[in-house]
Amino acid sequence: MAALTPSELKTILHSKRANLYYLEYCRVLVNGGRVEFVTDEGARSLYWNIPIANTTTLLLGSGTSITQAAMRELAKAGVMVGFCGGNGTPLFSATEREQDVAWLSPQSEYRPTEYLQGWVRFWFDDALRLAAAKQLQRARLACIRREWLKRPLQDEGFQVPAERLHAALADAEARMVRAEDNINLLTEEARLTKILFKLACDATGYGQFVRIKRGAGLDPANRFLDQGNYLAYGVAASAAWVLGLPHGLAVLHGKTRRGGLVFDIADLVKDALVLPRAFICAMAGADSQSFRDACIHSLIQAEALDFMIDTLKTIATETGAPAREHSDHRPMP
Fold first, then answer.
1. Range with the poorest average pLDDT among 35-39, 236-240, 255-259, 308-312
2. How far apart are CA 238 and CA 257, in angstroms?
């Protein structure tokens, strides 16, 4: 088998890649020039190929190991790798504290710099940073409005009254526009999420629900929300890496977390895609693997990574526009 160059591996744009993997109780290695994961079944070892050129993110759960050769090939292909606990949460790769979110990013000195330059131009201005945060929130609301009323969700029993959803989103948008600082904007974000939880409970007949994160004995919806959100974080980390944006340059969640930009980006799709799926699978009695498969399918079908990248590019170019008038840089293909 002929060796592939890094440029050949990256011919599939990240925004068009189709795979996001969560693996547990296996070994990831290079076998015959391909990256594979190995599982044991009795006396036999079963080898499964990972199509790295068409993969964005690899989450390694309990009981996993990975070789240097595999990491080298994954880095060449631009695959984001994260180590996590059972069922995909929490993420604790190469951090001092388990609660931090950080990723093993592919090392490349040839990613675009124009989006980072645009981001930095506005990031040190409090007013412009708030404007960027509001732009992210408007994109988040648009995604919820677009995804929650689609026919496939309704066919699975997630039937939210359109008038209630539109009213909640319109009120949230008006409040966010009036927000004077990040604290107020975060408060409005949390307020809308509580309303969405109520709508989801009513739509699925889930009953009483209180959001609790990463605790023992969680109910199915809370457990699935944790797992699905970490899948969204993986996609968000990939989006930031593609555009060369450091995870510390957050516009909304950056006060206490060095990976705050990943949280900002993931918010674009968490409520729109993960939240409905969590309640649907919880009511259906699905197991963790079935939920993850359904969640990954939703992220791919909605072209979540493409949506994240386009939104970030727009913010970087528009919010930093005054200082970019004479730039020779061209957008990524």
1. 255-259
2. 18
DSSP letter for each residue of 206-270: --------S-TT--HHHHHHHHHHHHHHHHHHHHHHHHT--TT--SSSTTT-TTHHHHHHHHHHI
CA distance 70 to 36: 8
* 98, 198, 277 from 168: Cα distances, Å: 35, 11, 20
DSSP 96: S
DSSP output for 171-187: HHHHHHHH--SHHHHHH
- Residue type for position 20: L
CA distance 325 to 333: 20
Please name which of 192, 191, 215, 196 lies closest in space to residue 206, comparing C-alpha atoms. Answer: 196
Q: How far does Cα 78 stand from its chain's mean position?
A: 16
Cβ contact 158:138 at 8 Å: no
CA dihedral 288, 290, 291, 293 (to 10 degrees): 120
Prediction pTM value: 0.77
How many Å apart are CA 25 and CA 127, to the nearest integer?
A: 47
Reported as a single tens digit per residue, the pLDDT across 117-142 is 999 999 999 999 999 999 999 999 99
Length of the chain: 333
Cis peptide before 246 (omega within 30 of 0): no
